[in-house]
Amino acid sequence: MESANFHYDRAMLEWQIELGATEAILDRPVNRYDAPAAEEKPKLAAPSASGVTPAVKVDHVAVAESAAAAAGTLDELREAIAAFDLCDLKKGARNLVFSDGIAGARVMLVGEAPGRDEDVAGKPFVGRAGDLLDKMLAAIRMGRASAQAPVYITSVLPWRPPQNRDPKPDEIAMMRPFLLRHIELAAPDVLLLAGNWPCQALLGKRGITRLRGQWTEVAGRPALPMFHPAYLLRSPEYKREAWADLLSLQKRLRDG
Ligand code: URA
User: In the chain, what are the domain boundaries?
Assistant: First the structure.
């Protein structure tokens, strides 16, 4: 919508902010009323013997599973995720956030989902939570860029959920095959599950306060749930538990 009237434009902007808009996604507004109504075309299956073509529902998880299985390297996996169009989060995200750190590291950390900073940078853990994560890893002489003790980092979801809302169960379910393949291809000795969503995706349960600090197994590899750094920023009183978990990781790497 265009107007030469400053006060009118300003009132429209304030109205949007009141409705909860926190950032501009495009350079200019799109008037959805002008756009031609998109026709929802059902995906069609091959014609049956009778010649009738039945409409079938696409199984998002099955499509994700075969795309993930076909990826033979981490680069191919990134391309397969970039080409996966069935997760609506992709439409609202600026960038795909695939990973950071050194592939092949002994430790792979799985976070939750990109936030605003990560969406802009196309890299996981670059905001305040990322700074805290780097400090936590440095405290046990590890780091995503460390040549001696590197950590490889990814997240359950590669696209930012709008307004940082919680991921929906179907979003986790359809991105899970990519995450499992990611773990397989990166082949770490040990997994760190930072927060509730990696626990939900990989252990099928949440409750990080109860789960943290207890070693478990994911895809045949030892896995340690721990608090997400963003949670520690909000609740610094839990840093003591996070420190205990880091020491437990250090011991595991030394013993194993
Ligand atoms: N927090 C996460 O869990 N993942 C990211 O990619 C960034 C922040």
Answer: 62-255
How many Å apart are CA 225 and CA 234, to the nearest integer? 18
* Packed helices 60-70 and 74-82: angle between N→C axes, nearest 10 degrees: 150
What is the CATH code of the structural domain delimited by 62-255? 3.40.470.10
User: Cα of 41 to ligand 1 centre, how many Å?
Assistant: 34
Q: Global pTM?
A: 0.81
Average pLDDT over residues 149-156: 98
User: Of the residues 118, 160, 234, which should be mutated to test ligand 1's pocket, given the most ligand atoms within 8 Å of the CB?
Assistant: 118
155 lines ligand 1 (CB under 6 A): yes
DSSP 161: P
Q: Are 167 and 113 in contact, with CB atoms under 8 Å apart?
A: yes
Nearest-angstrom CA–CA distance, 199 and 176: 11
